[in-house]
Amino acid sequence: MKQDNEVFVPENSGNPSEAQVPDAIELMAEEVPVGMTDRSADEAEIETFPEIPIEEMTENPVYAVEMRGISKSFGSLKALDDVDLCVRKGSIHALLGENGAGKSTLMKILYGLYTKDSGTIKIMGETCEIKNPKQAIEYGIGMVHQHFMLVENMTIAENIVLGSELTKSFGRLDRELMNRTIQEFGEQYGLEVDPQEIIMDVSVATQQRVEILKALYRGADILILDEPTAVLTPQEIDNLIETMHRLVEGGKTIIIITHKLKEIMASSEYCTIIRRGKVVDTVRVDAVTEKDLASMMVGREVMFTTDKKPATPGETVMEIRDLTVKDNRGIEKVKELSLHVSRGEILAIAGIDGNGQTELIEAITGLRKVESGEIIVNDYHIENGLPIDTHNAGIRTIHEDRHKRGLVLDFQVGENLILESYKDKGFSGKGNLFSWKKVNEYANDQINKFDIRPCGCATQRANELSGGNQQKVIIARAVEQDPDLLLACQPTRGLDVGAIEFVRNALIEQRDQGRAVLLISYELDEVLDLADRINVIYDGQIVADLDPKETDEQAIGLLMAGGTQ
Amino acid sequence: MRRFFVKVLKKPFSGVLIALIIGFIVGAITLAVGGFNPATSYGLMFTGIFLNTRRVMQVLINAVPIIMTGLAVAFAGKTGLFNIGADGQFIIGQVAGAILGYYVPMPGILHPIFIMLCAFAIGGLYASFAAFLKTKFGIHEVISTIMLNWIAYYFMNFIINMKSVKVPGSQHSPEIRDTAKITFFSREFRTSEAGEALIAKHPWLDSIVRTDAGFAILIMIVVAILLWLILKYTRIGFELRAVGYNYYAAEFSAMPVKRNALLSMFVSGGVAALGGAMFVMTTPYYISMLGSTEGYGWDGIAVALIAGNNPIGCIFAGLLFSGLKFGGSEIQSRLGAPTEIINIMIGVLVLCIALVPALPRLAERLEGKE
Lengths: 565, 370
Prior knowledge:
heterodimer, A: 6-stranded mixed beta sheet, B: ABC transporter involved in vitamin B12 uptake, BtuC, 75% helix
């Protein structure tokens, strides 16, 4: 068993078929940046001997991180089961897996946040016990968490030096020296920042850069990035990948946790796939395709293009005319925006985060004041209404933030399923009081119908469910109330491939049942996959109304960035 | 052995039990340091409570006010509001009870019902003001209710000080009318011949006739069950809990969140004020000038905390609290040990209860080491 996990090229399961090898080479040609000579050297060997484990090709490879036989249980749940992970020095190594597969747990063990039950860890060939993050830092490991750990009202320089401040006599902070040091330090790694800016004034991408610099400043040679692209725009993602390559050239080793296949293809050399706490395989990225990775991750072939019939749009359900909305700071975020959605179609709003999507959603759902314009749903005006008006007009929403707006995490799954329909007479027993028996019966029906797992979780609390299953609860609730318009805001955010497929199919099914679907997504793939019509939003306005069949990623990308066709 | 330990730790009630044990241990240490034998002290405390049924009944009677304020805090807590102002609402209820009990002539059974309804409404409105400030201006209810406590307290002293109210030569208001009293048997009856005869005939009635036992106990139990029913089985209770656990999700689910905040505080304040009114109608029959508040509302916060905001749990938590205090006074009178020791115990108890959420994690750790 152990032997299987150590090999770098799939032996038994994911053999790259002959048809796929040219694919891989094509990808290489496109995406390997110039200067990565060692990769192109290996390329030839891969081509000729695709099935020979890499370990045999190079003698005594140097591993920056060598984790062997790592196991970890939480109660009865085996989160990691005999996991091996070997990361070569000077490489970018991706950890791929569905939500809850164990990849974060593995990294938290490496960073000393969790203690392992068994197994050994070697850093740069040296066996070590990492009991806490402090020790991890001493071993040269740095971690950039998904949620940044920065002091919001301090400057960039102060955040980076925090804990090892530079001082003048009597312990006074030497701000000038700090700023200069950080400026130079950033330039050295090509991560330019303005050391004097306050964290809360800078963009998310810059904050991430600060986090990386912070880790480097503490002497990290091995960087762990936990889903670093989740918060970034496409351009920022490209920048990050560039930065990663530059860091590796400078001798650093990077482990990146992600479930975005494209980014793995674009950034990493090796990829370890983890499924349900076990290593499926470790592969050279240039020897496999996106599809191979996806099927290894979920254990079956995943449909990336969702099948759907052509749309048959009916009458208009929602029409928005000249809508203007301001954000909390009083800046106009939606500017005289107009759009309309009809029955039986999926209208996707494509755009980069921050172009007015959030304010548009809040205006429709009755959470934000409308300055001017109209929102008409089924002949009802709902601008400047309350959430209840939006409901009554026939709109149900899958909110982008499911923990904040979508679910009551401390409620049982059953209670969450009736969160919007609790007034339904069907749940009443004697004297108009709740009949929990009826509620749970209903919940169990929904759990079966929407395949919410674990099976029979009606009385489990919602926060015990995985992200994908939580989303299923929200979708089940929205759909079961028979809305005229389903407003889906980033419905697949943070979900694994299997759950994404489920959500996408559910949306198409809703469309086929004659409901209008308004999809707001930052992921262009999703937009192109699902939309019957695409509206591109830029700077608070719809700048284009496109037919997905007659357009492509480049054209939309250009429009999203404010260019013209 | 360890597996058993882990299992026990994971039970929600065991946290309270462990807190209790630690509280007693710390109390014992304090007693020992003070030069008193902990074993004798605890023995006295125990017999002090359970010596006869009359004492047990007294513990129950003493528990009613803090259970009521506990219920008030717990109900608001379930709906996401921290009603730190139960003390003030209790005082408002006391004032309502004393004033309406004396000035409004009414027939026997109607009088207490009238007073209790009025107290509930007045206390409810008083507390709703804090909720109004919260929904309208975003002022946190902890700040506003704590200030309303002081307003209530000085208001009570002001009312008693009015010439038309204060009984000349005393520091308290006039005693309420007999029609407003809600003890089962009047004080005169206890010492009368009829009273003696009744006890002689039915010895088990002793603890009811000779104490201030009254309808307050029954009403308290009814209120606790009612609140539990509302939270668990009604739509409004469902809404209130949803708002309490996640305001944003409740708002987004088109629930009337602002109305619910007002309603929740109204009920919470009403229950506390009802406790205050029943307190006046049960024992002192009047309100007195106070140098500081009696702190029933503060004890209520501790009761709600021990009960985990469960209305039924509040009854038991209140009884525990009341028992400790009653037993503590016994140690003081018999041994001369200061009651502060009991207060230290209660303090440690509350502190340990606050640590209860850490127990499952501790259990997991132990489990992990297996």
